[in-house]
Amino acid sequence: MGKYQQKTIIIGGGILFALLLIMAQFKMIDLYVQSVIMFIGVNIIFATSLSIVNGYMGEFSCGHAGFMAVGAYVSSLMSVMLFTPDKATGLSVLPPSMSIYLFPVIIIIGGVVAGIAGLLVAIPSFKTRDDYLAIITIAVNFIIVTALNNMEVVGGSRGYMGMKKVIYGMEGIIKFPYMLFWVITFTIFAIFLIRRFITSTYGKGIIAIKQDEVAAEIMSVDTNHMKLVAFMFSSGLAGISGGLFAHVIGYVNPGSFSILKSTEGLVMVYLGGMGSLSGSVISAILFTILLEILRPLQILKWVIIPLMLILVMQFRPEGLMGDKELSDFFPKLKKYFKFK
Amino acid sequence: MSLLKITDLTQRFGGLTAVSDLQVDLEEGGLYGLIGPNGAGKTTIFNMVSGFYTPTEGTIDFDGTVINGKKPHSVTALGIGRTFQNIRLWHDMTVLDNIRLSQHYHLGYSVFEPFIRTKNYYSNEKRIEDKSMELLGVFNLQDIAQEFPKNLPYGIQRRVEIARALAANPKLLLLDEPAAGLSSADVVDLIDHIRWIHDNFDITIWMIEHQMEVIMNLCKYIKVIDFGKTIAEGTPDEIQKNPQVIKAYLGDEEEMYA
Ligand SMILES: Nc1ncnc2c1ncn2[C@@H]1O[C@H](COP(=O)(O)OP(=O)(O)OP(=O)(O)O)[C@@H](O)[C@H]1O
Ligand SMILES: [Mg+2]
């Protein structure tokens, strides 16, 4: 990948991004379309982060939404507590103007806490694998959702809100499509980090674990260390997607992070192809759009989506992309972007 | 100087004693053989030495450090490399990546550097790549650097696996039946190949092999085990004449003198 091409892609992408923001700023894009774009971003982060564990490392995590929940609640609590004016005094803990700068920090803190929650799965993974580990991940998802259901500080099963006010507060100071900006920025950031991880000899340690864990351990890969890093990295990014999700919707409740949400993540990863980053990105886009199209069908969509999964597994079990990247199908892209 | 010293090593699996009361002393620079009938416990010994099994009893002293109880990756980092009886390459990864990854114990950069890509990261990745390519070059495998092992002939896979073990700079190389599954022409090549590695890598080799041609040609000192116990040891000549060895191999005689 030449320096020149790399520049082209950065400048080209930057212009596109700026154009999108300007159009959003001047209401040239419908709010609904904006929200779909943001959901796509959230789902891309959610799916690609899951693909670290399920795609590259070859473990089967089915409770990824639990970590999304941790990030969503931690960042929501922080932004609401810090930036909502007190009823009596009319003052918030920190001046609302600071929310503009602190927002990304709060999202990242949500990610860090979710990363630490990832230890709940990482530590059992030292001794347990495959089906047994999958069961542990489901249990962790349940534990997190149940805990949130029973925590009155975060509204229990009623959920938690107030994040919209914080965003409105930010928009009141300087008008700007903050959420659109941050969702896209974090999406690019997440893909960028995962790609850097997975193209390094260090990160490839998790691919070695997938292909032959015994050989990996005997050939000098510290498999426990790599599992720890992979699970924490993966759940940390899920936490970031959760924080963004919460602030896009402005409302969270434990039910949004149930096993059903984890299943959506699995559908995206397996649809896209395990071990393909561009596959996860493409399927997250397709999946989000499909969900929107099928929305009028209500509950019926949960017949159609699993049906699709069955068909994919029957006729293309490796997913849309298998372990190939876009550049394997369109070799010319290699000039612009190194996928592996 | 003694490089590997094993004392009273025993491995039990439930009621089965796979290895019992084993004593081994390997001098630095030697080329040693380990033979015995099927199920004798040979691979189990290698699995203990490489840290994959924890011995039930006994000690393994490698280069002045007691290594039993250590995790396999740290044993590798201390200088023991190995190959497997049934090739265990990472089959969906290029040959080059296979070689690169066995240097995982010494990447020379921290956990965060792959993300921020410091100068140090790039220079170490380059060092690893150069070393891997050099090693492939030495084995005349440079042309298949971008191939996947699963698509390569068996004989080449064996070579790649040996190269991978050597990439971690071992002082002791354990070869578990390197000639298994090879054609007789490949076996002749393999003998030369192992001798060449032994001479050029300044390394101690300990190998398990069923094909007597290989063992008798290469090893200066051979240990014979049966049912987990040592039944004989000595030079190839002594071993071939040993009545107990002949008895253990009864029915396997053809192989013995093949
Ligand atoms: N993890 C294990 N659990 C239980 N039994 C085992 C285990 N590993 C090896 N064994 C048993 O220990 C005995 C020795 O096995 P080992 O693989 O060491 O034999 P070997 O000498 O390498 O034989 P071969 O020539 O067939 O490779 C066998 O009876 C085997 O079934
Ligand atoms: Mg064996």
Search tags:
heterodimer; A: 340 residues; mainly alpha; ABC transporter involved in vitamin B12 uptake, BtuC; two-stranded antiparallel ribbon; 2 strands; 1% strand; B: 258 residues; alpha/beta; Rossmann fold; six-stranded mixed sheet; four-stranded antiparallel sheet; 10 strands; globular; binds adenosine-5'-triphosphate; binds magnesium ion
Largest interface chains and counts: A-B, 26 and 36 residues
Q: How many separate domains make up the residues of chain B?
A: 1
Helix/strand class of chain B: alpha/beta
Q: Oligomeric form of this entry?
A: heterodimer
Describe the structure.
The complex is a heterodimer of chains A (340) and B (258). Chain A is an all-alpha fold. Chain A has a single domain, classed as ABC transporter involved in vitamin B12 uptake, BtuC (Orthogonal Bundle), CATH 1.10.3470. Chain A is built from 15 helices and 2 strands. Chain A has helices at residues 3-25, 31-57, 64-83, 99-117, 119-122, 130-149, 163-173, 178-199, 205-211, 213-218, 223-249, 259-272, 277-294, 301-315, 326-329; strands at residues 160-161, 251-252. Chain A has a two-stranded antiparallel ribbon. The N and C termini of chain A lie close together (11 Å). Chain B contains 11 helices and 10 strands. In chain B, β7 (172-176), α7 (184-200) and β8 (204-208) form a beta-alpha-beta unit. Chain B is globular. In chain B, α3 (95-101) runs parallel beside α6 (154-167) and α5 crosses α6. The two termini of chain B are 34 Å apart. Chain B is of the alpha/beta class. Chain B has helices spanning 42-49, 72-78, 95-101, 113-116, 119-138, 154-167, 184-200, 212-218, 236-241, 243-248, 253-256; strands at 2-13, 16-27, 31-35, 57-62, 65-66, 80-82, 172-176, 204-208, 221-226, 229-234. Chain B has a single domain, classed as 3-Layer(aba) Sandwich (Rossmann fold), CATH 3.40.50.300. At the A-B interface, α8, α9, α10 and α11 of A face α2, α3 and α5 of B. Adenosine-5'-triphosphate binds at residues 13, 16, 18, 36, 38-44, 85 of chain B.
